[in-house]
């Protein structure tokens, strides 16, 4: 059952913005003109949805007005809600994967193409930072059912490799109920296999242990989350938090986490309303349907993998 309150009655600006990539994977960013909110910062092009406009329609209009390009197709990528002093912005980020025309700053603003690495060094609106953390992640996070689902460490490693062979690039290793010595040896080899495949793996456990085992980040339960006052790992690692309540969503934002796992407990309508309160991109837990999850505001999906017999 949902323990989230109704969305806050505060005025919220609905903004559609675009991730547009060139053939090298660089993203088109624009510098906000003088005199506007957050002037001088680099942003994803877009703007406010007008009454009655869908996010796609708003993007078509905004990118024509701001960049002189015609959008032929866009689809949802992620959404998040950021509270600026005196202003709440709900960002609906869409991937624009078909467009024509020559992009240029029609309002006199600078526009340029940036790799994700370079974009992370640019001054950008605070709302955009969590987004930059996740844009290079595979949007399907595979969570570990726990060692007790496997006969041995070797059986677990065999399954881990099979997932990598199948193209999985974002995985979790669960430290729960695992003998520390076994965990140490298995985690070392999991990390090695993941590195070779170019995959990222997180430890579900204590942040300090994740760091010591060389994980690419940590996945926190709400119990660990509640004991934290600040982000437990530097920004070159990932901090994913599994939450259920509105208070936990807020706490995840306060410790400056990167990504939320949120269950689809009471249908997609309820899920979407919860995502609308999230300051961070969200993964729909226990879900395999990426397209549906994205159409309800999620960035991706997370599910527990089933041990091969
Ligand atoms: N387009 C865009 N807006 C963003 C981003 N991040 C972010 O916080 N915002 C905020 O979302 C709001 C978007 O409004 P906007 O100024 O682009 O709206 P607009 O194009 O319709 O301009 P206008 O109101 O002058 O007509 C601003 O408050 C802006 O600061 C982003 O990456 N792209
Ligand atoms: Mg704009």
UniProtKB/TrEMBL annotation:
Which reactions appear under catalytic activity for this entry? 8-oxo-dGTP + H2O = 8-oxo-dGMP + diphosphate + H(+); 8-oxo-GTP + H2O = 8-oxo-GMP + diphosphate + H(+)
Single GO molecular-function term? 8-oxo-dGDP phosphatase activity
The record's EC number reads: 3.6.1.55
Keyword Nucleus carried by entry? no
Q: Where, in this chain's numbering, is 8-oxo-dGTP bound?
A: 32, 37, 43-46
Keyword annotations? DNA damage, DNA repair, DNA replication, Hydrolase, Magnesium, Metal-binding, Mutator protein
InterPro entries recorded: Aldolase_TIM (IPR013785), Mutator_MutT (IPR003561), MutT-like (IPR047127), MutY_C (IPR029119), Nudix_hydrolase (IPR020476), NUDIX_hydrolase-like_dom_sf (IPR015797), NUDIX_hydrolase_CS (IPR020084), NUDIX_hydrolase_dom (IPR000086)
A GO biological process of this protein is: DNA repair
Q: Which cofactor does it need?
A: Mg(2+)
The cross-references to Pfam families, in alphabetical order and at most eight, read: NUDIX_4, TMP-TENI
Similarity comment: family membership = Belongs to the Nudix hydrolase family.
Q: What is this protein called?
A: 8-oxo-dGTP diphosphatase
Organism, scientific name: Wenzhouxiangella marina
